[in-house]
């Protein structure tokens, strides 16, 4: 019972972050399960099966708060589901999965870290330009993004949010709350297809159902709270928060990829954390300034 409660709390925390920032449920949950000794394929299977329920609740919650751009769901979710099914099937059967992951992770971390820097600068430090200019996003862009993110999500235990959210945010064509709500809602299809891939390639008895139940129980509690937070937070704060999380999640792999270790890596961690805090403070002051200017422009 104690293990169930701890896993449920982990699921609650992971879903609260994922539902609020559009990423990190799979990464954080899978990392925890691997740490306690669950095999990679079983850990990813448990997380994705639990996500079928949590993403359904999250999608309904985001939709009720108006956080979803339905015109983009199909063009991301269907390719994402195909990629997720293939990734799940390959993870179970490929004996070189660990070696392949070791080659892919540094490249993905470098790309995402660069996107994190761009997202942070766009939403926190731009003074005289709106961080978002709502415009159409091409289907030719959405579908490959969904396919790659879905595959890496199932194959690596997490990646749908960390890849989709910063990529869409960096385009500057969607409001952060719409990006997060759309990514979280379309993730239902990705989680469902990944789960089918695992169930086809694993026996039903192999799935750690107690882990699935615990993660699901915690996640469904957090999903509506996270959707409400996304609705209420200003665009600048939400974008800045996402940018900082992207940097923090990817900085260890990024530093290893560029050969930064030891004391220099520790200094790098402190600097990134300091920049993120400064960015949030700057974003808050920018919001207050904009509101003050708006108030001055109102007629008496």
UniProtKB/TrEMBL annotation:
Question: Which compartment or compartments is the protein found in?
Answer: Cell membrane; Membrane
Q: Which UniProt keywords apply?
A: Cell membrane, Membrane, Transmembrane, Transmembrane helix
- Where in the sequence is the signal peptide annotated? none
Q: Gene Ontology cellular component?
A: plasma membrane
> Has the keyword Membrane been applied to this entry?
yes
Q: Which InterPro entries match?
A: TM_pro_TauE-like (IPR002781), TSUP/Inactive_protease-like (IPR051598)
Primary localization class, coarse:
membrane
Q: What domain of life is recorded for the organism?
A: Bacteria
Q: Does the keyword Cytoplasm apply?
A: no
Membrane topology per the entry is: Multi-pass membrane protein
- Transmembrane feature ranges: 32-52, 73-94, 106-125, 207-230, 237-255, 267-287
Similarity comment text for this entry: Belongs to the 4-toluene sulfonate uptake permease (TSUP) (TC 2.A.102) family.
Name of the protein in question = Probable membrane transporter protein
